[in-house]
Structures
1.
Amino acid sequence: METPEHVFREFLRQRHLKYTTERLAILKEIQKFGRPFEAEELLLELRESDYRISKATIYRTIKHLLDAGLLKQAHFGGGKQAHYDFVAPESSHDYLIDLDTGKIIPFANEAVVKLRQEIARKMGFDAVGHRFQIMARRADNAK
């Protein structure tokens, strides 16, 4: 199994881009989140870790990570800020959004992946990904 660092290094090498300590620090920090995050949150976390990485470098690296398939942009209704989420090469996950608190809860479910593959196959396609979000309220708060 290839590590995210190896995948990113190879992606950059193929595009004749440098694998810098700043880009590695950004990737490592993203992996620590364990949830969707905003670019500004990433910037603050890196600055608290004593990294002096420019906002431009963060946004460029996010773009490279998206293109490399190690990051995905998560769209949550109404928000103006883009959210990003780390995609481990060996797994995928979806989101349950608590409408009362705004909390975004990642989850993985093999049945969702199987359903995605089955639907695509029946329509003559090979599924390579999906986005699935459940908007919900706690059962005791539901009306």
2.
Amino acid sequence: MLNKVLKIVGIVFGSLVLLGIMAYGAMSYYFRYRFPYGTYINNVNAATFTTEQMNDYLLRNYIPGVDYSNISLLVEGRDGYSETIKCADIELKADMTGELNRIMSDQKPYEWIVSWLYPIQYKVTPSITYDEKALREEVGKLKCVNGSEYKKKPVVRLEPDDNGYHLYDEIKDRADADRIFEMARTALDNIDKSVIEMDIEDCYIAHEIPSEYKDVISLYDKIEKLKAARITFQDDKLKYTLNGDLAVSWLQKGEDGLPFVDEKGDLVFDETRLEGYTDFLSDVFNTTGGYIDWVKHSGGTVTLKNSMPGYIVDKTAEKEKIKEQLLRGGALKRRPLYESEGNGRGNDRVGKTYIEVDMGEQKLYYYVDGQLSMSSDVVTGNLAKGNGTPSKLCYVYFKQRNRTLRGRDYATFVNYWMAVTGHIGIHDATWRNKFGGNIYKTAGSHGCINVPKDFAGKLYEVVEVGTPCIMYY
């Protein structure tokens, strides 16, 4: 009986073992073409998936919202240009089966229990393929490469505008198909969204102007060179800049309304406009004429007419120099060209050595380097007879010894004569025994400044022609 039981148990156990072996073998066979348990690809449990099933699933979920069958390239360029290349037209495909098959081939189906106990994580990426020939053809069809505007006869013309002259160049820059093709290849190798934006600003090739427009371009370049020119005139604290923008408005124009060039190829200026500008420079930089505010030795300020020689712009030379420098172009700084130069500007034109005649005090002061050197009482022009000495800034323009002064009703000998303005000068008056006070009001001179002989001699020896003389009441 025991033997019979043992035999039955043996048969049952053997059957169970055989069934287990058969079940294990069946599972091993099942996983020959499926991923075993414990296989994770891109954080997805791939157990029981075939490579085709896993490929479809991963492609749908690899980049959220990206359908590889509907990807497109959005080409964007200048002036709001945009155009689309559909990747379906270049047979673009994404596939992971190559890497998935490699993972599958590395696994052993009969180790499916071990895989279950020891899971493994894998990382795969899509392989992008497309027809490069088709891509190149699609790029060649883009309007920025082969649009109808590139087949028109080009027009290049120069027209006046508010800023001078504008070059209307209707020739458009064409985009380089090879550069766009390479940019597209790079973009397709790095797909991260359904619409891939491509900015082709750097893909344009600068066009060349046809030789038939060389004269237009030459004229435009000359005008632009003139427009960019700058001449800054500066002397002491005075400064003024002539901009090329203004000079462009001085150009002479032909019947077509455009500037023209002379036989040397230089732009031609309207001489009247240039002369008007040199007149303006003279107003700015000349120091002859006008008035000066003088601080009297006793305090207070008096305004005097200026008759001292000073800076005078050489308008003829300056006109030619301005033309030369404007045509040469560039920016430069210089002093104006003068036909004569003075001692300075403002009160500086007087300097530190001068004669000051205060006709209200009837006193003459001679300053050397800002220090009083000598002074004397004087008698100036007779106010009662209308011969008053004028108030003005003048200068010693002539010196002479032993001169006879002549007028309508007089001829007077003087030992020292220092002319300061017109027929008025500083001289000795030996016929007078008194100076200063109020003599000038009723018994003054014909307009000259009378001084004692000794003082006249000393002043004559030291004063120089050109010495400023300030006279005021």
3.
Amino acid sequence: MKKNLILAMGSGYSEKDLAPFFNSLNQSGYTDDICFITQEQDAHALSNFSMAGNVKIHLFRDQKPMKKNRVRKIGKYIDSTCTRYPILRKLSASFREKYAFKNSCAHLRRHFLFRDILGSFAQDYQNVMMTDVRDVIFQKDPFDFDIRPDSIYYFLEAEHTRIQDCEKNSWWITEMLGKEALERLGPNHISCGGTIIGCPKTMHMHFKITTESIMQNLRCCNRAGIDQAPHHLIVWDKLVPNIHVIPNRAGIILTMQTTKREHWSISDEGLIVVDGDKIPNTVHQYDRFPDATEAILARYS
């Protein structure tokens, strides 16, 4: 049977910063592959965690982007020109990708790298998880649930959150996709783009759509978090096949920031527990709560 793969990217992190992520993953029982993308100057922080042999370090060379205002000004000009002359959109595709990759913030650049990695190695893996790093820990094997073949799983934030009620998500969609898109997508629940699980082929499609959206909106390529806009477009317009949308407190991935405090607790062992008895496989955004952070650092540092 093929292995599973965790895709993650981080730069500027110390060994101490990475300890909760890797130590919790080791304790979770997960033994399949981890592909961690980082810059050469940051690879030393991974040295102790890569000794197990299942951590594959993928280095990328950081390129010096232009100043933010210049990136947006030039990007806006390119966007408007390609809109006015559609033939340029196709002719300039290679240039726009290079421009987007060079000038994107790391948060958006990772989608290009994940896309290319899966394009090369998708056939080698059963399922793939894309995850944030700094605020993620694993309490069980993250793939320990009923994963259907050829499917992709998106995970909601708290049940009371809707896109139109969130200032940031509303702005990201309006800025990248327009007001009409917000009107259509706004009533839906917020899905977190920092943790996704699915088959390699569909995950690759997800990253391809995301990068194309970034390349078509170069004025936005250095705005951290704006990848939530194409993320919600993919989820709620069903732009990839076999989508499964999972509630926040289902016990697979708990996204904590918007979760009401009454719905989670901390066990004597320092685990995050949902609704009194469920131990989520993966916990995201724990650092928004001092008591959760203290318990997690005590257990996994």
4.
Amino acid sequence: MANILPKLPFERILKKVGAKRVSQEALEELATVMEDRLITVAKEASELAKHAGRKTLIAEDIRLSRKKP
């Protein structure tokens, strides 16, 4: 899957936690991992909203979907 998230925020995060340098491949891999997780959370949140009879996602849907393994 092509990464849709920008790489610079991931580089900032990695440097904030102590990385001195970050390769482009590492940034791409982290972006891929995070996008996969975000898609999973979004799908689960959407299902929770549908189950509740809503068309609108709310913060609670996101919070609940984050807690799933």
